Amino acid sequence: MEDIIKIENLVFKYRTDDGNEEETAVDDVSLTIKRGSFTAIIGRNGSGKSTLAKNINALLLPSGGAVYVNGYNTADESKLWEIRQTAGMVFQNPDNQLVSSIVEDDVAFGPENLGLEPGEIRKRVDESLYAVNMYEERKKAPHLLSGGQKQRIAIAGVVAMRPECIIFDEPTAMLDPHGRQEVMEIIEKLNREGITIILITHFMDEAARADRVIIMDRGKVMMDGTPAEVFSRQDEVRAMNLDVPFVVELAGRLRKRGIPIPESIINEEEMVDYLCQYK
């Protein structure tokens, strides 16, 4: 698979409140993201993960180094439209992304701004609402929906733009467990359909559902590998003030009791299947 995102020695600095000093939020990060992959980025508050995400979407521009999206340098203002069309972004609070009083009008907002024909807009709106299982709610007002439903509408609005990559910046942080599960199922469905997913999250069980997990701390990449590779290093993960998925912790306890749980098991389905076959 080819790279859709390429980050070279990225540095990003914020001005402090007094404006006299600069605080480094992302410190010499180099990464590539494969087209069609599902990457989770985790880290404690202030680790730089959301700043990294906003640099990918060109909401922020590098203080040093470079970010390329589909080959376009995010610092090239003439390519900003192409970059934003390639890499859409869904934020933590869906209310910040909803702009209309009717669900289908909200989803149509992006395609309308692309100058598409009415028939194409209608097609994209319907397909996007079906993709997030919200077509039946298309005539409702967003404020009448649950938090999880609002987030699905926000996702539909991005999907209607037909991006090749979607960056999710802690999209389930404000949701209850049911809403979280709904959104994660949509994210996995979009990835199966070929969309590149970058998920910023502080929920370890969500990260475990990705193909790749990156841990950031103090602006740097500290770990990078498959979920099994990363979460098997439990002591190192906890040293960065992070938890591990419940199944990983349970597996560790069972190993201490003599049950040889494979290191590759990191989700509930795999654990249940193994224990049912274990004798």
Brief digest:
The chain is an alpha/beta fold and 279 residues long.
Question: Which features would summarize this protein structure in a list?
Answer:
279 residues; alpha/beta; four-stranded antiparallel sheet; globular
Please, could you describe this protein's structure?
The protein has 279 residues and is an alpha/beta fold. The protein has one domain (3-244): Rossmann fold. Helix content is 38%, strand content 23%. It is built from eleven helices and ten strands. It has helices spanning 49-56, 80-86, 103-113, 118-131, 147-159, 177-192, 204-207, 227-231, 234-239, 246-256, 268-277; strands at residues 3-15, 22-34, 38-42, 64-69, 72-73, 87-90, 165-169, 196-200, 212-217, 220-225. The chain has a six-stranded mixed β-sheet, sandwiched between helices. Helix 3 crosses helix 4 and helix 3 packs parallel to helix 5 (147-159). The longest helix is centred in the middle third of the chain and has 16 residues, at 177-192. The mean pLDDT is 91.
Query: How does the overall form come out from the CA principal axes?
Result: globular
Mean pLDDT: 91
Largest sheet composition: 6 strands, mixed
Structural class by SSE content:
alpha/beta
Q: What is the strand arrangement across the widest sheet?
A: 6-7-8-3-9-10
**What are the segments in which pLDDT stays under 50 over at least 5 consecutive residues?**
none
The proportion of strand residues reads 15-25%
- Which architecture would the CATH scheme give at its second level? 3-Layer(aba) Sandwich
Order of helices and strands: EEEHEEHEHHHEHEHEEHHHH
Helix content: 25-40%
In CATH terms, the superfamily is P-loop containing nucleotide triphosphate hydrolases
Radius of gyration, CA atoms, in whole angstroms: 20 Å
For the record, give the distance between the C-alpha atoms at the N and C termini, rounded to a whole number.
Answer: 40 Å
CATH class: Alpha Beta
Number of strands: 10
What is CATH's topology name? Rossmann fold
Count of helical stretches = 11
Q: How many domains in all?
A: 1
